[in-house]
Amino acid sequence: ETKAVGSTFKAVTATAALEEGVISSGTAVWCPGWYESESDYAEEKTKFGCWAKDGHGTLDLTGAITQSCDTYFYHVGDLFYARKGEALVLVTDEPQVTVDPLLAYA
Catalytic one among 7, 25, 37, 68? Predict the structure, then answer.
């Protein structure tokens, strides 16, 4: 079965979230086939669909990667950006540059 190329970024998201302590390998998320962000305070929330329209049910990280569950990674993205902490600093030969935490792993 063919998946969208965006699915290749799920491994980056998983690695970043594990290394930053945002999730563990046992973090479980229920996939009903869509995701609404808890941090979306709009009057009408945006509903993001998973490729599995009927959902995957409850998945841990291994299941989410195996099934390429979009809902799991939408949730991880929300957790990642909701965490408290310092911004990551990109270490280069140039002066220190503050970067989006997730992009530091890309």
Answer: 7
